[in-house]
């Protein structure tokens, strides 16, 4: 992002799924204070790009703050604020492991 150099197709082929997902959204990604954000358009809120390694911590914190909201509300809130690959499945698995939310 900072250097402005675009990777070649060959370079992208050897990268992770997460990297390829981000590359596909490159025109919507902005760097602010060394954090990546995605903004779909001028009428949308920007969403923080979360590394997969931090997704669990984000879900735990948000889940606690929302007070066991259930899977649908949890996913809607995560989707509105954050972006990471496999987000919907991660939220579903997280909520299924939470006894109050799973019922």
TrEMBL record:
Residues 50-102 form the Integrase zinc-binding domain. Pfam families: Integrase_H2C2. InterPro entries: Integrase_H2C2 (IPR041588), Retrovirus_Pol_polyprotein (IPR050951). PANTHER family: PROTEIN CBG26694, PROTEIN NYNRIN-LIKE. This is Integrase zinc-binding domain-containing protein.
